[in-house]
Specification:
Layout (H helix, E strand, L loop, with lengths): L4 H32 L7 H4 L2 H26 L5 H36 L4 H16 L4 H5 L6 H42 L6 H30 L2 H54 L2 H6 L1 H6 L4 H5 L9
Amino acid sequence: MGIPSEYIVYASFAMALVSLLELLWLVHFIVYHEIVQRGKKVTLKEVFTPFSSLLILIALSHIGLYISEGGSTLLRPQQTPMFFVFYTLEDMFGVGFEACYIYYSYLRAEPIFDQVFPSIAKFVSFAVRVSPILFSMQWLPFPISKLQFKDPQVSKTISMAGDVITMINGTLLVAFDTLCLVTFIRYIQSTQINDGITDSRFLIICRYGITSVSVCLSGLGFFVAYLISEEELCAFIVYMHFSGLFVILFRMKVALHRDKVAKDNERLSKIESVAAGYRGRQRTNISPVSINESEDQSVTNGPYQDVTAVMPRKLTAS
């Protein structure tokens, strides 16, 4: 496409730095907003929940992708041993990103799958859980094909097997994204039919899910272009789509957190209103004589004093 390779190298390393900053912001959000602000103790169990762990792995994968892509592009003309190392790492990080993306997307959307397509929910669950095995096979043929075989045809056959595995995994990814897209659209349509009675968290997942699926399908189109042309620019554009996916999934996490905080605050407000109503009725039912004689006791020993004393503070979503 006429883009000098050094530009791809500079852009790859620059995006690796940007991705590192995104990872740091993710860790800050998890530790401060999801744990500290909610009055929890910072422990490894609280930090590395299934969703947070997968997002962290996704962030680490696309940092590795940019670094290895920059290294392989820089060393491609020399074809040094380090070029093959970077190229293999690039495949490994790409496979890791794809596997984590599918598993994260499925975990978020699993309750929606169960509602929209209950007949195939178990099959989808099984397919998602075995997908890491299929994706891990994608990067193995390249390093194996570079071994010194007596028959050169063996290397070509192994390389072709790698291309076939890549196409199969790409087809599975397209099928999964298409299923997600149909599921999300059907769920949103069902809420309109049912006068909008639904879980707000599901709507958040559907809206961000539709966006992430659209970005993923667009990235797969550029990946096909890369397989045909072997242009590093196409690979870089694919990785930019990966960065977009991470941002979308991160924003989904923030939106779900804010929704949970809003619901918690709403429940606390209702508790405060009920407690205030009880106190008001209590004062109304006390006679003037008892008020004059035991005013201090009615305040300090009232049956609802403990409710307000131990009531948790309202949470804030930043």
